[in-house]
Amino acid sequence: MHFLINLIFLKMKIYTKTGDEGTTSLFGGRRVAKDDFRIEAYGTVDELNSFIGLLMASFDDEKQISILTDVQNRLFAVGAALATDPDKSTPSSDIQASDIEILEIAMDNMDQILPPLRNFILPGGDLAIANAHVCRTVCRRAERRVISLNSISTVDQQIIVYLNRLSDYFFILSRYLSHTHQVAEIPWIARKS
Fold first, then answer.
1. Phi, psi (5° rounding) for residue 30?
2. CATH at 160
3. Which domain holds residue 101?
């Protein structure tokens, strides 16, 4: 993350060769292995942010696109906080209670028009629905990676709450997209013995 900021403001080359031996720098300068818990956490948040971009490119709903754009901005700040060396400064995720409330209100609003959930549903139906499910599962993985990091280094608890709520939002969004796109949800059918 800090590399990107340096790249933008200092106009340095995209390649530095400093990671060729499997390490990278945190904000603050400390070098860690590229598979460090902290790198796994912010890397998965970055991956989620990319999949959200793909999701937004696959459907057209101004209200949800606006929410998702806000989510992308929040996740960028979360990534920066996770990429900060906790020994050098106290990283702030900038996640506020209002950010979580926005997701809850969006879910409540979408849920009001949805039929009751009577089955487990399979990911798919159309591209946007499938992308929402991919975002849901990557978000759950990001949450797990942040919890793993939190077991060895204190993480802003608002990040965990936000990721938990965000994965719920993606599930409701997938159902909402099924409804608004008039695509039937695909029920899970257990094998008959």
1. -65, 135
2. 1.20.1200.10
3. 33-187
Does 12 map to a domain?
no
pLDDT of residue 33: 53
In sequence order, the 6+-apart residues with CB closer than 8 A to the CB of 8 are none
Q: With a cut of 70, say whether residue 145 has pLDDT above it.
A: yes
Q: Identify which of 129, 167, 117, 155 has the alpha carbon closest to the alpha carbon of residue 37.
A: 155
Q: What are phi and psi of 122, to 5 degrees?
A: -90, 145
In-domain check, residue 15 = no
Average pLDDT over residues 15-31: 56
Q: Alpha helices, DSSP H only, in 58-126?
A: 62-82, 97-111
Total domains in the fold of the chain: 1
Coil vs helix vs strand at 176: helix
11 assigned to some structural domain: no
Whether the predicted pLDDT of 169 surpasses 90: yes
Q: Is the pLDDT of residue 37 over 90?
A: no
Exposed/middle/buried for residue 190 (C-beta within 10 Å: 0-12, 13-18, 19+): exposed
pLDDT value for 12: 64
| pLDDT tier at 88, thresholds 50, 70, 90 | confident
Which structure tokens are listed for 63?
A: 């209200």
Residue 149 covered by a domain: yes
